[in-house]
Amino acid sequence: MGKIKTLGYVRLSRKEESSWSVKNQVKEIKQYNSAAVIYVDDGVSGKDNLVSGDGAWSDLWKEFLKEPQNSEIVVCHLDRLGRRKGKILSMSEDVFDFGGSILDLSSNMRYDSSDDFSKQVGFTFSALMSDAYRQEIARKSKIAQDSLKDAGLFFGPVPKLSKKDCDEIRDLHNRGLGLRSIGKVVRTKNSKGVWVNTGPAVVRKVLDGVYVPREAFLAHNAAVRAGLRGVR
Length: 232
Hints:
Rossmann fold, 5-stranded mixed beta sheet, two-stranded antiparallel ribbon, elongated
């Protein structure tokens, strides 16, 4: 047997959190083996990554088949392999049948034989639980979010304009200033602490009476949350 070739697989869908960032996954695999060849499916859903003919997984698979008995497929967590349980298990059988292995860095478990009952059960269980856990979290998150919406909670970032800013915008408009000119007078700080003009669209919302000032936004959400605590 020759030197083992490490093929790292990284996947990040469009909806996932930054903790699963491509950078973090690549870093973890490189820490395991700095010589690893890494294939990245960025912005790819786990529903079709294993069956797509033009994605990173397809390229990895072609490389794997060149020397399967001297190759290992490494992932940060088994759920990076995808979300379709049947496809994951079918793929794993192919890997094992060709003499290769799959390494899950999160559990430090290596899977290399479908005949090894305990490892195969572990692989199957981990794949099933990863998918079930994600679906359960998504379900609970949606229920919680829907409940908060029904209670009237405002979502989104806290508005930058205060009541005083809004009053000034209306006053400047009454004096004849245009939207852009008003935005140059009434300015706010961005996330980096730099002063920026207020956009014309925001100024228009204030003038149309649909913009919620910062104080009102915070007071409203505090009252909603207090009411929810009282219900409990």
